[in-house]
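Morning - zinc ion inputs below, output right after.
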Amino acid sequence: MDSKSFDSSSIIDRYPLLISQHYAKLKEKKYADPNIQFDLILEVFAVILKYLSTIVCRCYLFNDGGDNKLNDFISGEFKTLSDGNWNRLLRDCLSRYKILLRQNKEEGVTGPLIMIQQMIDYYFNKFQGKNNNDHYKLMEQIIPMDDWFKDIQISPHNKSVFDLFVSLRNMKSHTPKKSSKEYETYIEILKPLLDHLLFELEFITEYQLCFVKEVKVEKEIFSHTVKYAMGRNFETTKLDLEDSYLNKDELYILKWEKHTLGTDDAPKIDWSFTLGPYLIVAECPACNADQIFILNNYKNKKINFRNFTCTHTYSPPEILKDLDDIDAYLAGEKSISNLLKGKIIGEFFKVDDNLADSPEKRITSNTMLQKSRKYLKENEIILALKFSQEAIDLNKDNHEAWFENAMCKIITLEDLDKPICQVKKAIQLAPEKAQYSFALAEIYFETGKLDKAIQYTQHTIENSPSHQEAKNLLKILNSSNGNGGSKVNNDAKS
Ligand SMILES: [Zn+2]
C-alpha cells in the first residue's frame, strides 16, 4: 500500500462506527500530544481487534461450537476480557475455521463464512508469517526499540500485528513512562501500520453494522426503523423487508443482496446475525447518547461493558441471561435453537430442508394448514394440495403440513414414492407421532413391502403401546412371515 494515497476520510465516513469514531479522534488537533496520540492509536487497534473477535466468535458459537478447547476458553478465561484474551479468541476461532474451510473446500464458501474467509486472509495471509511488505518492515522497526519486545520474541514472521499491539499495550502499562520524543518515534511507525491494517480491512465496509430501533409490520411488509452504525454517526433509516429477520434492540451485521431491479426496491438481506451480547447498543446512562458498548468483564454474575467513544461503562443486567445461555450452550446444557434471540445465523447454517422459519411464517403456515384441512374435508383435493404445499413452503418444520400434503397426494396420485418421502419427513420432524409411522406402515403393507411395514408398525407401538390398530396389523404381519406377501395382502384387504 502506498500510505500517501490512503484516504483517511474514507475510514471516517465508511467504517463501522466504533472504528471510525475512534479513528476520527486521531485526526483532531486537540489530541496532538504524543502521549495521548500513542494511546489513541492503540485504542483503534483494540477496537478493530474486538470488533473482529466478536464477529468470528458469534459465528463460531452458532455455526460450529465443536472445539472443546475453544469452548473451555470462551466459557472460562474469556470472562475476563484482557486484550490478550481478545487476541487469542480471534486467532483461535480463525484457526479453527481455517481447518474447517479447507476441509469443505469443494462445497464452496457461502453466507457468513464468506466474511470469515476474508478475515482469515486478512489475519494469517496479510499479517502473519508471509513475505516482506510495508507491514513487516514497519513491525521490524518497532522490535529493536524496546527490550520489552525482545523478551516476548515478537517477530513479524511468527506473530500478528495484533500480538504486537498487545505487547505495546503491556509495555505502556508495565514499563516506566517514556518521553514525548520517544512516543513520537513510535507514532511515526504505528500510524502507517494502522493505516495499512485498516486499508486491508476494507472488506468489512460491505457488512452493515445496524441497530434495530423499532420492529413494525405494515401491510404484510416488515417495516423497521434501524440505525446504521457506519461512518461516524448513527444514521436512522426505515428498512422494508419481506420477512421479519430482525429483533428490536439488537445489533446486527447485515449483508445485502445487490439490487437487481430499480433502485426503489427494498434491499434483500442475504444473511444477518446479532453481535450481542458481546457488542450491544444502549443509551449511555452517563451521557444519554446511543453508544456501542463492548463486553469488558463478566465475573461472578457481574457484568460490565465499556465504551470506546464516551469512555463510560455500563452494566445492563438483562444481558446476563444471554451470557448464561452461551455458557449453558458451551456446557452442552442447552441446544443451539434455544440460544439467544439472534437465530438468523443459526437458521442459515442449518441444511436447507431443515430450515427453522420466523415466528410470523410459522403462524401463517398453520393458517394455510387449516385451510388445507377444510378443503380436504370438502373433497376439494386440488385446493387442499395447494394450501398444504404453501404451509410447507412457509415452514419446512411443519410436520403436520408434510403429512397433510402426503395424504392429499396419496388420494390423487398413483405414484407413492413422493408421499412416502414426505411422511418420512414428518416422522423425522416428529418421531413421537404414532399417526405418521402407522400411516407409513399401512402404505407399505398395502404395497406389499412387508419388512418395512413391520418396521414402522413396531415403531408405532414403541411410541404408542396402546395403539390397537398397530397391534392388529403386527399380528397379521407376523403370521404372514414365510407365507408370501400377496396372500397376506389380500387377507388384510378383505
Ligand atoms: Zn457515555
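Note: The first strand starts at residue 208 and ends at 214.

O.
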